[in-house]
Specification:
The chain is an alpha/beta fold. Helix 8 runs parallel beside helix 9 and helix 8 packs parallel to helix 18. The protein contains 18 helices and 18 strands. The radius of gyration is 24 Å and the shape is globular. The protein folds into 3 domains: about 100 residues, Double Stranded RNA Binding Domain; about 45 residues, no CATH class; about 300 residues, Alpha-Beta Horseshoe (pyruvate-formate lyase- activating enzyme), CATH 3.80.30.20. A hairpin with a 2-residue loop joins strand 3 and strand 4. It binds iron/sulfur cluster (SF4). Iron/sulfur cluster binds next to loops.
């Protein structure tokens, strides 16, 4: 366990992710300065971090597990006047000490947020020179050259893609279908296995239909830009249910200006010819068929309950039916996998030749089985995720895929990132809009979080739906009222 004492607990959320990035397996406990004095735990048996914040200085002491204590004291900018500069100075000081003790560097330095490209995007918008961006990211945030280059490349690509659409005057629609054939080991989404919750599907669709009808009247003056059906796995629905749902969406919204209609067909074991045809008939122009890995033993281990053959069959079937924009997701760092496994997975994906490939790095989320049962998987922990990510980067470069969006997650392996790569013109526009928070997203379904972007005020407000399936069904009127109250209070959105 790592115990942390802060003289000002306001910095807890700044300190925690940095310490966790260096010591991902350790439990972290914050103590306040007074209770720490009475702490019964012997200092010599634990790692202890103590940070004293003064108005223009910061003192950090770290006691390692051998009882050695290291101390640094730095004069900084005035805490009250230059909050961000003060906070970043503290993070750098902490980073340098932890880096020297652990003999580790973090590729993203002290940048712990999930949207590093947003920072670069905003700087490009302000016409800041690339060299200046580079030097700022390096000095202020201690990012590696590799990550700065990637951020600049992606932010430029995103800007090019968004330039072609009047996204500020539009909005996008997200609809969540929270059912899956089974629950994956690492899953932290609001997803329910169809075996256990199948009897609720019809009630869920009825509630969703009510919300869809309400949502269609939310923005009479705005154009719908993209529609994304995610979850869960929407193709867990039967072909008839999918047909009905897509029909309701098309009947209620004007699709004249829609640039992308995307459906997650994530699990190959949920796909059939009939469903693929239904998607195409209703104008779905991008789907995702996600292997995560092409290693049979890993698929078994992570509870996907489908084979590599099923992935291949689903992909070829989708092509045969006529889908010409198919994304595939893979995950780097799955338990027990080596670089050779990743190379083999990429080799198999090469034969399928998808239009885009999203490379995720495993993030262990608190609610996932992988975290709850973590002791069972300690021996299978991957040690070279950075190398694996480089292998995938090289693969995409050689196969003509360009990186076009990026995000990070809490507890992501080796403090890395997720990157979407696509052939030219096959990018997922919704992914950029949501990750860069460029457009209002009206989100429907259980656990869905709507985000309202106020461009002039540079502000984003959120309105969420309950996660629990039964609550969503029984409280649908309340979900609608939450949005309607918000929109009534903000008529000029
Ligand atoms: S397919 Fe996705 S949403 Fe469904 S259980 Fe697996 S990780 Fe969760």
């Amino acid at each position: 366990m790592i115990q942390i004492i802060l003289s000002d607990r306001i910095y807890e959320n700044d300190v925690r992710p940095i310490v966790m990035s260096f010591y991902p397996l350790s439990e972290i406990r914050f103590l306040d300065i007074n209770s720490a004095k009475d702490s019964q735990v012997s200092r010599s048996q634990i790692r202890l971090i103590s940070i004293i914040f003064n108005r223009t200085s910061i003192t950090i002491e770290i006691t390692d597990d051998k009882g050695e204590t290291y101390r640094t004291h730095n004069e900084t900018k005035d805490q009250l006047l230059e909050k961000l500069a003060y906070k970043n100075a503290m993070k750098r000081q902490l980073y340098n000490m932890l880096s020297s003790l652990s003999k580790k560097d973090l590729p993203w330095g002290i940048l712990t947020g999930i949207r590093p490209t947003k920072l670069v995007y905003d700087m490009l918008d302000k016409e800041i020179d690339e060299k200046e961006i580079y030097s700022w990211m390096n000095k202020e945030y201690m990012c590696s050259d590799e990550k700065i280059e990637l951020s600049i490349l992606i932010a430029k690509r995103e800007r090019d893609l968004l330039k072609a659409m009047d996204y500020k005057k539009g909005y996008s629609l997200y609809i969540g279908i929270p059912f899956c054939p089974s629950t994956c080991l690492y899953c932290s989404f609001p997803s329910f296995s169809i075996e256990g919750y199948g009897q609720l599907v019809e009630d869920y669709l009825r509630a969703l239909e009510t919300e869809i009808k309400f949502a269609s009247s939310c923005f009479p003056g705005k154009r719908l830009t993209t529609v994304y059906l995610g979850g869960g796995t929407p193709t867990t629905l039967s072909a008839n249910q999918l047909d009905r749902l897509l029909g309701i969406i098309r009947a209620n919204f004007d699709f004249t200006y829609v640039r992308e209609f995307c459906v997650e067909a994530g699990r190959p074991d949920s796909i059939s010819r009939e469903k693929l045809e239904v998607l195409l008939n209703w104008g779905v122009d991008r789907i995702s068929i996600n292997p995560q890995t092409m290693q049979e033993r890993t698929l078994d281990l992570i509870g996907r309950r489908h084979s590599v053959d099923q992935i291949n069959e689903a992909f070829y079937l989708a092509r045969e039916v006529g889908h010409n924009n198919i994304n595939m997701d893979i995950i780097i760092g799955l338990p027990g996998e080596t670089s050779l496994d990743v190379e083999d997975t990429l080799d198999k994906i090469k034969k399928l030749n998808p239009d885009s490939l999203t490379v995720h790095t495993l993030a262990i989320k608190r609610a996932s089985r992988l975290n709850i049962e973590k002791d069972n998987y300690l021996d299978l922990r991957v040690k070279d995720a950075s190398h694996m990510l480089r292998v995938s980067k090289e693969f995409t470069k050689n196969k003509g895929y360009l990186p076009y969006y990026l995000y990070r997650q809490k507890n992501i392996a080796d403090n890395l990132e997720n990157v979407g790569y696509a052939r030219y013109g096959k990018e997922g526009l919704y992914n950029i809009l949501i990750m860069e928070e460029k457009q209002t997203i009206l989100a429907l379904g259980s656990g869905a979080m709507s985000k309202f972007v106020f461009h002039n005020e540079k502000r984003i407000d959120r309105v969420d739906n309950v996660k629990n399936l039964k609550d969503y069904i029984s409280r649908i009127d309340e979900m609608i009222k939450r949005k309607s109250d918000f929109l009534n209070k903000n008529p000029h959105l």
